[in-house]
Amino acid sequence: MHNACEQKKESPAGPEVYAVFEGGKEEMKGHNDIIFPQYREQNVIVTNSGKLVVVVQGRNKSDWSDRSGQDLICKTSIDNGKSWSKPLLMISEGEKSICPNATVYDKTTNRIITLYSVFQWPFTDPEIRKSWEGLKNREYMIYSDDEGETWSEPHEITQAAKLDSVTQVFGSGEGIQLKHDKYAGRLVVPGGDMLPPNKRVFAWYSDDHGKNWRTSDIVPNTQGRLTPCENAIVELSDGTLLMNERNQGIGHRWKSISQDGGETWSAFEPIVDLPSISCNSGVISVEHNGKEILLYAGPVGPSPDVINALNEYEGQDLSSQERRRNGVVFASYDQGKTWPFRKLLVPDLFAYSSLVLLPDGNIGLFYESRDHLDINLIRFSRDWLFSN
After folding, report:
1. What three-state secondary structure class fits 173?
2. CA 21 → CA 39, 57, 106, 283, distances in Å?
């Protein structure tokens, strides 16, 4: 099996699409022994041996669908995503809701770690949250030392959360392990929390291979935005961390940088050339023709060629399906300062997504499809992406 970081000779093959999780069709069952109709918020990692591991929430039907993820489930692939194992139950919370979650891989210990929040009130009675006494959610970690085949019992890490917050957020997406200088080996996971009326953004990090977790300083929100917290973090070639953060509503993405391994962050700045519909998305760094290139993928709404989403969609009452549509891959050649390259990959419904460099050197784009019911994978080569 090849190491995931090796550079391969690629053929300029066009996109190939594979089903990973299919709502209503998997054999996994949730609350009251009902087959899960929906799988959401995928986390994707690649192990040292080249195995792909995808962690998702299995969601039941609920009046508040965002709080109806009761189980964490994973699948694995040893052939670059062309075929997948049967679903494996990682942890179940009965009527409590798991949401959100983030997964990070420690290459030194070969340990996969998933952090997640558990809402304490039953998902079958969403209104009870308004009168719920005590903590509404608690935070946990679970890990696998055999590349996703078995998982530990949950370990509570609520004590690591910021004490003045109401709701904690992990990801939703993937964390990273740093490679450069004195922070090499550190695990960094995107996150945030809710302190009404605003949401706040920060990072979780660990310097002891995930045994203990700390939270960074809050990203300065100098523009007074109601930040949705979900974000992706990538390490640049000079060790700088770049955070790419979800916008609220229709608009563009936002960014922040860290020069100290994710402990402190610069104030948010707009990324005016990344049009975006409020949605969680992935960003990664790849090498192509000897150059470092950042890739970002996300939905841009009903117009795949939109440049300025605020102007394009002004006054339009777009439905959820109209918003989270047309998955476009963007590229930056200057470490995220500008994003001049774009290519439409999914001219259909496209929601939360994750980007990953596959063991064979191709790019894997995992995304929620069929109106948030399924998880698909689209594979493509870097040569194909940058052709024409």
Report:
1. strand
2. 7, 10, 25, 22
- Classified as helix, coil or strand, 196 is coil
**What does each of the 388 residues of the chain score in pLDDT, given as a tens digit?**
334 444 444 554 689 999 999 999 999 999 999 999 999 999 999 999 999 999 999 999 998 988 999 999 999 999 999 999 999 999 999 999 999 999 999 999 999 999 999 999 999 999 998 998 888 889 999 999 999 999 999 999 999 988 777 788 899 899 999 999 899 999 999 999 988 888 999 999 999 999 999 999 999 999 888 887 899 999 999 999 999 999 988 999 999 999 999 999 999 999 999 999 999 999 999 999 999 999 999 999 999 999 999 999 999 999 988 999 999 999 999 999 999 999 999 999 999 999 999 999 999 999 999 999 999 999 999 999 998 7
Instruction: Respond yes or no on whether the N-terminal peptide bond of residue 340 is cis (omega within 30° of 0).
Output: no
Neighbours of 33 (CB within 10 A): 6
End-to-end CA distance of the chain: 32
Are the C-beta atoms of residues 301 and 313 closer than 8 Å to each other?
Answer: yes
Q: Which domains does the chain have, with CATH numbers?
A: 19-385 (2.120.10.10)
Quote the tokens at residue 1: 């099996």
- The length of the chain is 388
Residue pair 142/102 in contact (Cβ under 8 Å)? The answer is: no
User: How far is residue 141's CA from residue 386's CA, in Å, rounded to a whole number?
Assistant: 39
**Tokens of residue 271, six digits:** 């990324």
User: What does DSSP assign to residue 94?
Assistant: T
Tokens 């080996």 sit at which residue?
Answer: 185
d(CA 146, CA 56): 18
Nearest Cα to Cα of residue 335 among 292, 282, 283, 288: 292
Q: What is the pTM of this model?
A: 0.95
In Å, how far are 6, 11, 12, 227, 289 from 383, measured between CA atoms?
Answer: 16, 7, 5, 36, 9
| Residue at 13: amino acid letter | A
Q: How many C-beta atoms lie closer than 10 Å to residue 312's C-beta?
A: 16
Give the separation between CA 238 and CA 15, rounded to whole angstroms.
31
